[in-house]
């Protein structure tokens, strides 16, 4: 479904990603782990063409994505929740979700509002509230709700748990896993929260200073002490 080949990324003269090869099969879910500054966000920005200068190829179902702006990729069934969430602060929760429907098509009709509020029960009572009046956790829920409103085929999540209380992280893990199951979404998640990755995905990549140093199942990850000690600095 998603295939990244020999991807290099640059910010000006800084060479951030080095020859990344990564693939996620249709309907599968993958986490990319890495320490601060490893290049996780740069990877998602490279896939979505929303920042760095990129060399190499990013293809969905064999079709290279080319240089189209990331928000236009919604029409290709690609939804991206960046680290800063990009909630529109001066419109309501309901209107934020409505904007997410932009990427829908005949093949991928919008998800009815009632379904969104069933997945995200905490958003229902807030539907008339302005985006800027939500807590961080509520904003993250809204960002994911908006991203799935057009039934994406590929969902890219950049550190969705950052700054969230543990109870919200648990809720979000259940919700993300459920939506991916029900819609058959292919997920690429970038995280530092290993627990969240385990709950929502079945494969894992580890990035260190812009290179892939591991890829495999979570069971293989657990067996590989070098990866945990040297590349993630976990005890
Ligand atoms: N706009 C930019 N201009 C120049 N360098 C950048 C820019 N954005 C990120 N970098 C650098 O690229 C490297 C990778 O950053 P990136 O944000 O991709 O890491 P990350 O793994 O997502 O880290 P974090 O978990 O802290 O968000 C870092 O050295 C960072 O300083």
UniProtKB/TrEMBL annotation:
Gene Ontology molecular-function annotations: ATP binding
Xref: Gene3D superfamilies: P-loop containing nucleotide triphosphate hydrolases
Ion transport in keyword set: no
Record-annotated ABC transporter domain positions: 2-234
Key words of the record: Amino-acid transport, ATP-binding, Nucleotide-binding, Transport
Source taxon at top rank: Bacteria
Record Pfam families: ABC_tran
Amino-acid biosynthesis found in the keyword field: no
PANTHER family: HIGH-AFFINITY BRANCHED-CHAIN AMINO ACID TRANSPORT ATP-BINDING PROTEIN LIVF
Family: Belongs to the ABC transporter superfamily.
Record's protein name: Amino acid/amide ABC transporter ATP-binding protein 2 (HAAT family)
Species: Cereibacter johrii
Organism phylogeny: Bacteria, Pseudomonadati, Pseudomonadota, Alphaproteobacteria, Rhodobacterales
């Amino acid at each position: 479904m998603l295939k990244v080949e020999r991807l290099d990324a640059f910010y000006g003269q800084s060479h951030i990603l080095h020859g990344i090869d990564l693939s996620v099969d249709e309907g599968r879910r993958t986490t990319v782990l890495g320490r601060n500054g490893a290049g996780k966000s740069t990877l998602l920005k490279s896939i979505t063409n929303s920042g760095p200068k990129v060399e190499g190829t990013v293809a969905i179902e064999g079709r290279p994505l080319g240089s189209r702006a990331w928000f236009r990729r919604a029409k290709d069934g690609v939804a991206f929740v960046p680290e800063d969430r990009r909630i529109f602060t001066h419109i309501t929760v309901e209107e934020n979700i409505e904007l997410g429907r932009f990427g829908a098509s005949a093949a991928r009709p919008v998800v009815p509002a009632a379904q969104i509020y069933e997945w995200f029960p905490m958003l229902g009572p807030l539907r008339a509230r302005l985006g800027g009046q939500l807590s961080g956790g509520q904003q993250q829920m809204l960002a994911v709700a908006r991203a799935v409103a057009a039934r994406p085929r590929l969902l890219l999540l950049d550190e969705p748990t950052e700054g969230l209380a543990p109870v919200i992280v648990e809720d979000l893990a259940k919700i993300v896993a459920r939506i991916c199951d029900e819609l058959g979404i292919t997920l690429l998640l970038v995280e530092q929260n290993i627990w969240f990755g385990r709950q929502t995905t079945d494969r894992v990549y580890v990035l260190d200073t812009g290179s892939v140093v591991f890829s495999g199942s979570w069971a293989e990850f657990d067996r590989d002490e070098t990866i945990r000690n040297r590349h993630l600095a976990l005890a």
